[in-house]
């Protein structure tokens, strides 16, 4: 069967207020979001859901569903991202976090890393003043203070240039982001990857806070509280890349195995925190210890944080990440000290 996926960019252009539009015709926003990111494969979607989405976008099913087109992954060499929620090149990435969970550090790290690979970086500053954005400015090639300037600067870079573009959710709420992305489409700018963040932290409480997304990066309060960064939630973060063409045939299988382990580990951890390790059955202790080790391995030193942490940044390519994760899942580091797995690169 051909690879099938929703035409997310078309949905973004045609239905900017997708949350309210979906609810008005009886669709659950969470279902729409999961279809966009690929968490629910198109093959498993109800026909009436797809017909309703096509009706909202005023398009045919053939326009809504892309066939045989792979989604290209931007390999960031950040383990948690590449494993659980790969960045879809040319797509829209939504960061869902409250202040203090590390979303700006992660965005700065992505800008820093990908600039080394020829990407140009553009930051659209929000109208409100956010002092915490000051640390981001050095990683942006272009800083724009309006939609018009952002469009002018990005088009000046040319259609052949790979561009990372970041904006606050305030531009989503006004609808200006959708207009800008429509202009990108008209100008045939296919390699602009958009990052949307929420400096106020309200997106956590909203369904579809950014509209349709190719990649969702959901930050985890518990990981952040325990200083396990990047605090990417391995269960809720997802990407259309994983339901498209895999860079590695084992990627999806390894990701699903890792999610299954971490989902159960998180349940067990609640019991252990409340009542101690003896509160869980002996047969579950292996799951608990392996979950601990996988969670520790997925922490990673960032280059942009070296001055603060004193720890050298690390990059781990996707194939190495998949190999290491499989080793942990199969018990290959069961005897290894937990501390030795925390904030490292590869095993």
TrEMBL record:
Location(s), subcellular: Membrane
PROSITE patterns, sorted: ATPASE_ALPHA_BETA
MF (Gene Ontology): ATP binding; proton-transporting ATP synthase activity, rotational mechanism
Keyword ATP-binding: yes
Keywords: ATP synthesis, ATP-binding, CF(1), Ion transport, Membrane, Nucleotide-binding, Translocase, Transport
Broad class of where this protein is predominantly found: membrane
Keyword field contains Nucleotide-binding: yes
GO cellular component: proton-transporting ATP synthase complex
Family per similarity comment: Belongs to the ATPase alpha/beta chains family.
The protein's name: ATP synthase subunit B
Source species taxonomy: Bacteria, Bacillati, Bacillota, Bacilli, Bacillales
């Amino acid at each position: 069967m051909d690879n099938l996926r929703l035409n997310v960019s078309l949905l973004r252009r045609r239905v900017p207020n997708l949350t309210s539009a979906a609810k008005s015709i009886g669709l659950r926003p969470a279902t729409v979001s999961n279809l966009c990111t690929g968490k629910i494969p198109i093959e498993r979607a109800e026909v009436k859901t797809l017909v309703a989405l096509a009706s909202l976008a005023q398009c045919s099913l053939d326009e809504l569903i892309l066939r045989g087109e792979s989604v290209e992954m931007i390999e960031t060499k950040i383990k948690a991202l590449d494993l659980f929620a790969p960045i879809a090149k040319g797509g829209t990435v939504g960061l869902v976090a409250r202040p203090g969970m590390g979303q700006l550090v992660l965005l700065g790290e992505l800008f820093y890393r990908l600039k080394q690979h020829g990407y140009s970086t553009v930051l659209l500053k929000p109208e409100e003043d956010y002092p915490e954005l000051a640390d981001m400015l050095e990683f942006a090639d272009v800083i724009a203070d309006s939609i018009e300037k952002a469009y002018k600067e990005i088009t000046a870079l040319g259609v052949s240039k790979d561009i990372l573009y970041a904006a606050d959710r305030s531009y989503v709420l006004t609808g200006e982001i959708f207009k800008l992305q429509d202009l990108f489409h008209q100008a045939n700018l296919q390699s602009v990857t958009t990052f949307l963040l929420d400096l106020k932290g309200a997106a956590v409480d909203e369904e579809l806070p950014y509209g349709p997304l190719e990649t969702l990066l959901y930050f985890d309060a518990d990981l952040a509280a325990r200083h396990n960064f990047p605090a990417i939630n391995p269960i809720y973060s997802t990407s259309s890349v994983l339901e498209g063409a895999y860079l590695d045939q084992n990627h999806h299988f390894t990701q699903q195995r890792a999610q299954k382990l971490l989902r159960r580990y998180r349940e067990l951890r609640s019991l252990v925190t409340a009542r101690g390790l003896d509160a869980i059955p002996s047969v579950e202790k292996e799951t608990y210890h392996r979950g601990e080790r996988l969670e520790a391995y997925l922490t990673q030193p960032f280059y942009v944080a070296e001055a603060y942490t004193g720890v050298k940044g690390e990059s781990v390519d996707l194939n190495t990440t998949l190999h290491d994760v499989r080793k942990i899942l199969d018990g290959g580091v069961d005897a290894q000290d937990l501390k030795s797995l925390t904030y490292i690169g590869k095993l």
